[in-house]
Amino acid sequence: MSLSQDIYIQFLDHFSALNNSALKVLKAQKSTSVSHHNQAIVLALRDVLEARSL
Question: For the CA atoms of the chain, what is the radius of gyration?
Answer without folding.
Answer: 11
